[in-house]
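User: Thanks for the earlier help. One more: Cell division protein CrgA. Can you show the sequence and predicted structure together?

Assistant: Of course, both are below.
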Amino acid sequence: MPKSKVRKKKDDAVGRSVSRTPVKVKAAPSSSIYVSVMLGLMIIGLLWLIVYYLAAEHIPFMNSLGAYNFLIGFGFMVAGLIMTMKWR
């Protein structure tokens, strides 16, 4: 079987070193405070919903909020989850 010919580079690319490989940009890791706040928001939201289910009738201000307790609890958790997108 015949051997294939080796192709040569074009002359117009001589003198320029163009790299076609992507370059990864290294970002600094998140601080421990950022991670603590992120996890804290998710835990606060979870605890808010647990307390609402278990003891809402014994806590006057929580009982008066009614269904808004779901908005508050899930709001904390969603804020923590949104923060995970910037976590490195």
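User: Great, one quick takeaway?

Assistant: Residues 50 and 73 are 9 Å apart (CA to CA).
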